[in-house]
Amino acid sequence: MGAMKWIAGLLGFAFGGGIFGGVIGYAVGSLLEKMIKKEYDGNEQKGDFVMGLLILTAAVMKADGKVMKSELNFVKDFLQKNFGRENLQNKLDILRQLLDKNIDVYQACEKIRTAFPYATKLQLLHYLFGIAVADNDCTKSEKDLIERIANLIGLSGADYKSIEAMYFEVADSAYVILQVDKNASDAEVKKAYKRMCIKYHPDKVANLGEDAQQAAKAKFQEINNAYEKIKKERNIV
């Protein structure tokens, strides 16, 4: 998936009071509370942001009942690229503690739903799928959880299916990605392609830096690939 510094830009402003204290209140013991305070004392907003991110990360990692080394390596690489080496180990220790806790993702998702623009939610779902496929074996339980998260943060079912089809081959994947019926006319297919190009255009994350644009370009290419496949099947000029 590449570096994802866009997560910091997209999420950094969003996690105010609520998630941080709430998780500590019902899911996290005193040891984890000390670890969090050690890293984020004096920077509550940053602490709340990272905590929320780690909640969703932990939830997806353990959705299938096992945590794979490849998933942990994916997350470790992400944290290091986005936040640097400083306190990396502490973040990983927090994540490991969360992996041992029963966590309800509802509270984190509710904050994202109300605070995030729609384009941000689309990119966040790609990050979660990145974790799920890191071991080359995304299970039904992982997919179900990611779909639930998509629901909770306010993504449409069509958008979820479109993103899912970028990672997994399904019947008529190209049509699912473009969110158009297989029996649609050529004109309707072209219209759907243009609509998806607008939704996924890299310019929508231009203010978040080069990494954000690179991530968006990769998804934009999936849209183009789907359209080219349909054009070839239909001999559309």
Labels describing this entry:
237 residues; mainly alpha; 13 helices; 0% strand; elongated
Would you mind describing this structure in some detail?
With 237 residues, the protein is mainly alpha-helical. The protein has 13 helices and no strands. It has helices at 6-11, 19-26, 30-40, 44-61, 69-83, 88-99, 106-115, 118-132, 140-152, 157-167, 173-178, 186-200, 210-234. The protein is elongated. It starts with 5 loop residues before the first helix and ends with a helix. Mean pLDDT is 78; it is low at 8-31.
Share of helical residues: 55-70%
Largest beta sheet, briefly? none
Number of helices: 13
Q: Roughly how many Å is the radius of gyration?
A: 19 Å
What oligomeric state best describes the polypeptide chains here?
single chain
Q: Whole-Å distance between the termini?
A: 32 Å
Strand content: under 5%
Beta-strand segment tally = 0
The low-confidence runs, each spanning 5 or more residues with pLDDT under 50, are 8-31
Q: What is the chain-wise order of helices and strands?
A: HHHHHHHHHHHHH
Mass-distribution shape? elongated
Structural class per helix/strand content?
mainly alpha
Mean pLDDT over the residues: 78
Task: Please provide a brief summary of the model.
This protein has helices spanning 6-11, 19-26, 30-40, 44-61, 69-83, 88-99, 106-115, 118-132, 140-152, 157-167, 173-178, 186-200, 210-234. It is mainly α and 237 residues long.
